[in-house]
Write a structure and sequence with these properties.
The chain has 250 residues and is an alpha/beta fold. It is built from 11 helices and 10 strands. It has an 8-stranded mixed β-barrel with strand order 1-2-4-5-6-7-8-9. Helix 3 (63-78) runs parallel beside helix 5 (100-112). The radius of gyration is 18 Å and the shape is globular. The structure holds guanosine-5'-monophosphate (2 copies), manganese (II) ion (MN) and sodium ion. Manganese (II) ion is lined by residues 35, 90, 122, 152. This is Bifunctional diguanylate cyclase/phosphodiesterase. It comes from Sphingorhabdus arenilitoris. Residues 1-250 form the EAL domain.
Length: 250
């Protein structure tokens, strides 16, 4: 409860901030863009992680203004990065039901002139499970705007395969539970191989999450995964600590 009260003031006091974790192309090692991961710099508790406060924000409805702030901030930050880079933004299922989601996104893009395809929205399977028709309509509207849509934490929910049929995702993010032991366990290798093949036949790319070791990268490359993300490359850091933001040398 105390945390909920504090969270009500956090946005106005500028206590929320975005950290960024790179998404790396597996073959070139090039940074393709960054995923925005929210942090709360609480004046007494120190840094509060999203797993702690996003559920509170969702239950209280505060996720709507917080989520809109995330969209605006992430697109603003993107304008500082090289033109070919993307930003990935996590969406709560609650935001999918908000009429202001589309307008916030459209206004953010218009105000900055950012190309829509440089923004990737990450949604989880529960978005497709809850209130399916309305959420599906929202997903199609988002796609019409031209942003990319990724299915996050893939493989952790139910009926995953059925959902892949229902919407043309641009990308599947393979949950780190399959990546953790891919260098030692054949069952993980087989699952990742199947997801990569499936994604490819559906015209989607794949990002492996939670990559911490070189051996995992070798296996992911062998299975045909196109992008990797994880502590091996970098944890999420504030924008001023991103080291790949130098403009390419001509
Ligand atoms: O580093 P990590 O602890 O940052 O993130 C934990 C969880 O919080 C992940 O599931 C991530 O998707 C979620 N998360 C991080 N940032 C945001 C955000 O801006 N909005 C929403 N809805 N979820 C986020
Ligand atoms: O659900 P989502 O994929 O958006 O959440 C990303 C979460 O994964 C964040 O909490 C982020 O800090 C965490 N994360 C990112 N890279 C790694 C990693 O290499 N290992 C582990 N254990 N967690 C990671
Ligand atoms: Mn994510
Ligand atoms: Na994920």
């Amino acid at each position: 409860r105390a945390l909920e009260l504090d969270l009500r003031g956090a946005l106005g006091k500028g206590e929320l901030c975005l950290h960024y974790q790179p998404l790396v192309q597996i073959d070139s090692g090039e940074t393709l863009g960054y995923e925005a991961l929210i942090r709360w710099e609480h004046p007494e508790r120190g840094v509060v992680m999203p797993d702690t406060f996003i559920p509170i924000a969702e239950e209280s409805g505060m996720i709507i203004p917080i989520g809109e702030w995330v969209i605006r901030q992430a697109i603003d930050d993107l304008t500082q990065w090289p033109d070919n880079m993307t930003v990935s933004i996590n969406l709560s299922p609650v935001q999918m039901r908000s009429p202001s989601l589309i307008t916030t996104l459209v206004q953010g893009l218009a105000a900055t002139g950012v190309e829509p395809k440089r923004v990737c929205l990450e949604i989880t399977e529960n978005v497709l499970m809850q209130d399916s028709d309305a959420n599906m309509a929202t997903l199609h509207k988002l796609h019409e705007i031209g942003v990319q849509i990724a299915l996050d934490d893939f493989g952790t929910g139910y009926s995953s395969l059925n959902y892949l049929r229902s919407f043309p995702f641009d990308k599947i993010k393979i949950d780190r539970c399959f990546v953790d032991e891919i260098d030692t366990r054949e069952d993980c290798q087989a699952i990742v191989r199947s997801v990569v093949d499936l994604a490819r036949s559906l015209g989607m790319t794949t990002t492996a999450e939670g990559v911490e070791r070189d051996d995992q990268v070798e296996h992911l490359r062998r299975e045909g995964c196109s992008e990797v993300q994880g502590y091996l490359f970098s944890k999420a850091v504030p924008q001023d600590q991103l080291t790949d933001l130098r403009k390419p040398v001509h």
